[in-house]
Write a structure and sequence with these properties.
The longest helix is centred in the C-terminal third of the chain and has 7 residues, at 229-235. It contains 2 helices and 17 strands. By secondary structure, the chain is mostly beta strands. Strands 1, 2, 4, 5, 6, 7 and 9 form a 7-stranded antiparallel β-sheet that branches.
């Protein structure tokens, strides 16, 4: 909940930053238990015991995985949390009480907020053939740490936000629509459908490939024309979509939301579709 990150539309104009540390002569990265110097003090109303979230903006984020035009906002990593232990007029000393990653010079501070985790569902089984709800739908546009495949408890970002009326605690079904393939190609069907040279010279086991599809004319030659996967798929009725997992929203921004993977049937990919349950 405190290390997930977010994609925000309007970052604050001015934020304090980490400007040093007690061990800065030996190293430039800081972690849990280290003392750092931050550029805010009593002049700005800071008091001992106050906590800040440490964030690292990475720039405007856009992606091909959304129908929303332009940037979705500034992708901002949450890298840790600090607690003020000594205060001077314009600078304070803070202890790193949580580190999600190395804290660096220039990382920014935001007032820390407590975010309650959505309650876990007791039923760990997921309906692989759940019908569409017809509610808000979008895509997974990014995963924390730049992952392209994620599983349970991983953090992802979806292109559904406050403008789409989603809320913290909403559950999303992750699915792949009909004909949405990741790796499947059909060019190998020409080899699979070959009709000759599959039998041995001595055993005469048969001349048919065990991967060949049926012939269109059962009264014709064994070497006749066969059906092809694309034409079968073109004429079939609507089939169930491929449900691969579930998310729960933990933070909502203007155009996006942060979510955590709760249940999976297989790995989830960046670009997979989501729908509010």
């Amino acid at each position: 909940m405190t290390c997930a990150g977010f994609i925000e539309q309007t970052p604050p104009a001015d934020s304090p930053e980490i400007v040093g540390g007690t061990e800065e002569r030996e190293r430039r990265v800081f972690g849990q238990g280290d003392l750092v110097f931050v550029s805010t003090g009593s002049r700005q109303g800071v008091a001992a015991g106050q906590e800040f979230s440490v964030v690292r903006p990475r720039g405007q984020f856009s992606t091909k995985f959304t129908r929303k035009g332009g940037s979705l906002g500034v992708y901002t990593q949450e890298v840790g949390r600090v607690r003020v232990v000594r205060v001077r007029e314009a600078v304070s000393v803070a202890e790193v009480v949580q580190s999600c990653d190395n804290l660096l010079f220039g990382d920014l501070l935001r007032p820390a907020t407590r975010r309650a985790a959505p309650s876990a569902r007791a039923d760990r089984n997921l309906d692989a053939f759940a019908e569409p709800t017809g509610r808000q739908a979008g895509r997974i546009v990014l995963a924390r740490d730049g992952r392209e495949m994620v599983g349970p408890d991983d953090v992802v970002f979806v292109d559904l936000g406050a403008e789409d009326n989603v809320r913290v605690g909403d559950y999303l079904t992750v699915f792949r629509p009909e004909n949405h393939a990741v790796l499947v190609k059909y060019g190998d069907e020409m080899a699979n459908n070959a009709r000759d040279d599959y039998q041995s010279d001595s055993k005469r086991g048969g001349k048919f490939s065990n991967q060949a599809q049926r012939v269109k004319d059962v009264d014709g030659s064994p070497g006749g024309e066969t059906v092809k996967t694309p034409e079968v798929k073109r004429r079939r009725p609507n089939v169930p979509r491929k449900v691969v997992g579930e998310l729960v929203i933990t933070r909502v921004e203007g155009r996006t939301a942060t979510a955590v993977v709760t249940r999976v049937l297989q790995e989830i990919h960046t670009g997979d579709h989501v729908e509010v349950q």
